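Study this protein:
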Amino acid sequence: MNNEILEKLLEIGRKMAENRLLDPLLEYAMAVALELFRAERGYLMLLNADNTLDFRVRQDHLGREIAKPDEQISHTIFEEVIKNRKPLVLANAYVDPVFQNAESVSSLKLQSVMCVPLIAKERILGAIYIENRSEASLFTADNTKPLEYFAAQAAISIENAILNNELEARVEQRTAELAQINMLLREEIEERKRVEKQLQHLATTDPLTGVYNRRHFFELAEQEFDRSHRYGRQISIILCDVDFFKETNDTYGHIAGDQMLQAISERFLGNLRQLDIFGRYGGDEFVILLPETDLDQAKMAAERLLKAVTKLPVETSRGAIPIQLSMGVASLTNSDDIEKLLIKTDQALYTAKEAGRNQVNVFLEHQQVEIP
């Protein structure tokens, strides 16, 4: 899930939270689903009390209402999603071994189909169904998670809009239910905060190791650099590379290699200060920004970290694997920005590798090559 989709989902969630009228909310949710996943047409259905289908929104990608003949949608697919309470993605329903014999699928020649249930507080409200009859494999498993987040946000808002409609109809006779709606609103806020927190976590962390991703590391580093230049404070950076990581992957397999990176991240985090900023720089490289730290202190910190992280082998599914790390260290000068400082740190890391690996090398100004 890329950052653009995450940011869009957050904005969609806020807009839905502001809309208390059920029909405009349903229409907005359907239009967003069509746009977000480039579908040709879509349906938003709510379950009636007797479990019959209520086609509340029928719309194509141009915003036009779609007629509702008996076979306009595959009831087989919809009923499967309602029964299992799980999303369903089909690259080509027309040839899918499970659904190809369904009369509606066959007659409509359905290709790309994605359907996700609307569930709020464990109660299934209905489903959002989108399709593309002219293009196969438009939707993939990667679309499932964004659609689930979207459906979770929509379900919360739809449930509260339904409740709000019912309460408004009888508010004069049942004023006690005002307390109920306030409670539901508080629950909605808490639930929305939880969803937004999950989205924020996905946007700022590396999915494998759980540490800051490269983009967020640079955002935090820029803030520290501004503070350092403004108040004349020291900053140092440690760049770390896992020695022989390619050979580890070739020998033990990528799963063991991933487990090794996860264990290394945990060991670093267990030996860093609270104010230090630690992130995955890319591949088998990690980067640490040390605020309020001069070059000598950074060197001592790097040597301490090297011992702590490499002291014991990592236990993986393929057995114990020893760790070796090369580290480059550099500190901020008045003319440095973050890119120049990282170039210096990278030069120090390269020197550490050339000198035999599994060691710390400090960048000294006389080592500097010309930096554009």
Notes: The radius of gyration is 27 Å. The chain has eleven helices and twelve strands.
